Amino acid sequence: MAWIYLVLAGLFEIVWAFFMKKSEGFTLLVPSTITIITMIASFALLSIAMRSLPLGTAYTVWTGIGAVGAFIVGIVLLGESVTPMRLTAGALILAGIILMKISSSST
């Protein structure tokens, strides 16, 4: 169950990162409100996952999901550039998340 909470926390991290960008420095009410609510949800779920997962594993996977997800959202929704170097970097982060999960399979 901790892994489900952790993945959900990572997904909320993607949402809050996107809406933080859309909030224009917290000057727009709706995106700012969504940012704050999803931040709280993300941190709450991360803290629940950390009850049974090691700190290094939980934090690495959480930030990795957020980083890769924000990278994809940036490309798909915000028109950010797609270069071989950026794709390689994203793939390496994803590989790190997978390896961290495999290395923690006993928890």
TrEMBL record:
Keywords of the record: Cell membrane, Membrane, Transmembrane, Transmembrane helix, Transport
PANTHER family, per database record: GUANIDINIUM EXPORTER, SMR FAMILY PROTON-DEPENDENT DRUG EFFLUX TRANSPORTER SUGE
NCBIfam families: PRK11431.1 (NF008512)
Domain of life: Bacteria
Main subcellular localisation: membrane
Keyword Membrane attached: yes
Annotated organism of origin: Ahrensia kielensis
Keyword Ribonucleoprotein listed: no
Residues that span the membrane, as ranges: 27-46, 58-79, 85-102
Family membership: Belongs to the drug/metabolite transporter (DMT) superfamily. Small multidrug resistance (SMR) (TC 2.A.7.1) family. Gdx/SugE subfamily.
Lineage: Bacteria, Pseudomonadati, Pseudomonadota, Alphaproteobacteria, Hyphomicrobiales
Protein name as catalogued: Guanidinium exporter
Intracellular or extracellular location(s): Cell membrane
Topology versus the membrane: Multi-pass membrane protein
